[in-house]
Amino acid sequence: MWSYILKRILLMIPTLIGVLTLTFVVIQFVPGGPVEQAVHDLRRGQSEGGGGGFGLRTHTGVDAQQVEQLKKLYGFDKPPLQRYVLMLGKFARFDLGESYFRHQSVWSLIVSKLPVSISIGLWTFFITYLISVPLGIAKAVRNGSKFDVATSLVVLVGFAIPGFVLGVLLLVLFGGGSFWQLFPLRNLTSDNWAALSLGGKILDYLWHITLPVTASVVGSFAIITMLTKNAFLDEIRKQYVLTARAKGLGERRVLWKHVFRNALLPLIVGFPAAFIGAFFTGSLLIETLFSLDGLGLLSYESVVRRDYPVVLGTLYLFTLIGLATKLVSDLCYVWVDPRIQFEQLER
Questions:
Q1: Domains in the chain: ranges and CATH
Q2: So what's the pLDDT on residue 150?
Q3: DSSP result, 183-252
Q4: DSSP letter (8 states) at residue 51
Q5: Alpha-carbon span 271 to 263, nearest angstrom
Q6: For the whole model, what pTM was predicted?
């Protein structure tokens, strides 16, 4: 086992380097870099009568000396290869750098945005599994019945509706768009949240996340529900289930003692990835629609503004977490099903 884990960890290094190298090369050819963005802001500040930002005062325009100052400020006075090596060295020490435009470390930016993404992601994750797994089992047991057909229609319709479209509909109906203003339109809490009692804080928080979580979770039911149903159907049709029934075991005992453990293997294996992914998969459109400042919105704004430390830092962190989660998923597979050996995973 330990040799397999060591091999997987060593394989993470070239994967990380490959992802960072490809991204670094691409951003070298993207127009409108941070220097151009800063020059644009300086010129706009002058046209409005200001002196310009970034600690620079100008009166006659942005000259070549100021451009060189900006390049030095952002590190673009060094050749690309040197900047690339410096970046890898910092990332090896888990130093993600500092944002060009927000004047904060990338770590502090990620931490400040986590509450929003965690709130949406974890609620979506737990609600999806709490509903989809029992529903999938019920559909498998009642396969082909009216209940099975009706619930399949409902979950597939929900899957076909994009979360953003559903979010717009919820805002129109319940956010004061055209009908009722029952839920707030922005932030995770009210402005007076600190002054509320403990019960009031909980209710206020739940009141704020109801619409965005509903918009995120509806489209998630179909995959888990159908995966659970198909896994249970496959197990129910196997020989050991027929043998257990022939021995006179009750249907509930056969279902929960024999079928349940084997049928949940695919879900258990995917559980670590789904759980960790809940922290980092906040929908950009959902966050934008409901005015929630999370990781999705941070990533989008960083790409638009060419805030390369944030882009590369978040990409490095998310890639590392994804690779580690894949390793944990493989270990869970072996732990849940002893028939699988690490030699099989290496093939």
A1: 33-74 (no CATH), 110-345 (1.10.3720.10)
A2: 92
A3: S-SSSSS-TTGGGS-HHHHHHHHHHHHHHHHHHHHGGGHHHHHHHHHHHHHHHHTSHHHHHHHHTT--HH
A4: -
A5: 14
A6: 0.72
State the residue for tokens 């049928």: 263
Q: Which amino acid, residue 21? A: T
pLDDT in tens, 67-109: 777 777 777 778 888 888 988 898 888 888 888 888 889 999 8
CA end-to-end distance (rounded Å), the chain:
14
Tokens 């021995």, located at residue: 247
Span 290-330, pLDDT tens digits: 878 888 788 888 888 888 888 888 888 888 888 888 787 77
Residue type (1 letter), 136? G
**Token pair listed for 286:** 């959902």
Q: Which residue bears the tokens 């706009």?
A: 44
**Based on the number of CB atoms within 10 Å of its own CB, is 88 exposed (0-12), middle (13-18) or buried (19 or more)?**
middle
Which sign does the torsion angle of CA 183, 185, 189, 190 carry? negative
Structure tokens at 188: 């995770």
Q: Is 89 exposed, middle or buried (0-12, 13-18, 19+ CB in 10 A)?
A: exposed
Which among 316, 317, 223 has a CA at the least distance from the CA of 279?
317
Q: Which of 132, 152, 160 is nearest to 228 (CA)?
A: 132
The CA–CA distances, whole Å, from 148 to 3, 108, 142, 327 equal 46, 48, 6, 36
